Amino acid sequence: xxxxxxxxxxxxxxxxxxxxxxxKAVGDGRxxxxxxxxxxxxxxxPPRQILLSELVTxxxxxxxxxLLAKDSTFYGDLFPHVVQWQGTCYLEDGLHRALRAxxxxxxxxxxxxLDLQ
Length: 117
Known about the structure:
alpha/beta; Conserved hypothetical protein from pyrococcus furiosus pfu- 392566-001, ParB domain; six-stranded mixed beta sheet; three-stranded antiparallel beta sheet; globular; Type II toxin-antitoxin system VapB family antitoxin; VapB-like_prob
């Protein structure tokens, strides 16, 4: 069983800690102003790489069906949507894709990034 220590998660009886995190933070909601972007607007932003550890999520929970579905990208954009505001990158859409990347031990994600600075 894992326990939470000062420096991260650790397995009892060992000195090993897992200091690696997936996201910068887990948020609940969108703290940035409404941007009014449509799917068509997002499609005009070319995807670029971003570290998972730089992202703050806008959802605390994820439906496992979305994460595990084979056709999870069938109805949406292939790239997650990230909003950069006041120096922070918020993962607005595509949490299941980001978690899937983390499960495959990838630290980088290709996403469409909207800069509201």
